[in-house]
Amino acid sequence: MTSQDTLAMIWAGLLAVAVLAYVVLDGFDLGIGILFPWLGVGRERDAAMNSVAPVWDGNETWLVLGGGGLFAAFPLAYAILMPAVYAPLIAMLLGLVFRGVAFEYRWRTERGRPFWDLAFAGGSTVAAFSQGVVLGAVLQGITVHGRGYGGGRWDWLTPFTLLTGASIVAGYGLLGATWLILKSEHELLDKAFRFARRFAVATVTAIALVSAVTPFLTHEYWRRWLAFPNVLATAQVPLLVVLVTTALFVALRRRNERWPFPLALALFVLGYAGLGISLYPYLLPGTVTIWTAAAPAKSLGFMLVGASVLLPVIFAYTAYAYWVFRGKTAAEGYH
């Protein structure tokens, strides 16, 4: 490998970590918004929002890092991908804006609180669904002509992308419900367990459907997942999914408050591993690899110096924030 190839691999790994960190951290607070319409008006909604209020904006740091890192480290992939998924990306950003404003405004008005509750729930759901649609659009393939996007305006909208969008909504709902199990008490805790069981069923069903469809999108996916001897290695992922799912349902049935959230996170990590198996070494399936999309070696090296300083700082303040706000929460705030 040349120095540029090595740096490209390092940056691909950093971006993979950033995207995973965003999904598992921002996923649960988007999940709180997805659950919001079914929570009781007043104390239940206040307690749920208080549980994520100290950390939600820090969680979105990883989204900025992922998007900015893709633009800086892999400009070719960025230039092709953005026109292909402009519509769902704009919808996602608008959803995040509405929910972000709702965090601040709902506490400052009584008359307008129902509107801001709706904005919080709607923005969270739209953002989650849009992220799933973008994921589905990447998996099903982006049409590339030369060094630019060669597809149509609506290529991103297919039954498969709608399925992946709904799957992400279900998965984030599960993360939100299991987060509430960690953070809530009394009636809200009982409701969180009920939500967790329902969203666990929806999430596992969605994983099964997406996993069943993906190998048929392209022959390359089929070869990686089902051709011998690859299947001997890739079969470990669905096996682990079955084991984690079983442990999750056992924990929910026993009303264990500690384990459902880590187990739900484990399901996402396994799904992310499956995505890596399907895509590597491509950033855009079948067309643009990590190395062909990479910026010049000097640019990658210069940015890596900054990242080596900033990433530990981000990890440190994120861990500190979660440590400080580690207890149960109520309508008045953390205990």
Offer a few descriptive terms.
two-stranded antiparallel ribbon; 6 strands; 76% helix
Description:
This protein is mainly α and 335 residues long. It is built from 15 helices and six strands. The strands form three sheets. A two-stranded antiparallel sheet has the order 1-2. α1 runs antiparallel to α7, α8 packs antiparallel against α13 and α12 packs antiparallel against α13. The longest helix is centred in the N-terminal third of the chain and has 33 residues. The radius of gyration is 20 Å and the shape is globular. The protein starts with a helix and ends with a strand. The mean pLDDT is 88.
List the helices and strands and how they pair.
Elements (H helix, E strand, L loop, with lengths): L2 H33 L7 H10 L3 H4 L1 H13 L1 H10 L1 H20 L7 H28 L3 E2 L2 E2 L9 H25 L2 H28 L5 H8 L3 H5 L1 H18 L6 H20 L2 E3 L3 E2 H4 L3 H28 L4 E2 L2 E2 L1
Antiparallel strand pairs: 1-2, 3-4, 5-6
Helix pairs in contact: 1-4, 1-7, 1-8, 1-15, 4-5, 6-7, 7-8, 8-9, 8-13, 9-12, 12-13
Short description:
It contains 15 helices and six strands.
How many helices? The count is 15
**Helix proportion range:** over 70%
How would you describe the oligomerization state of the chains in this entry?
single chain
| Radius of gyration based on Cα positions | 20 Å
The first-to-last residue Cα distance is 54 Å
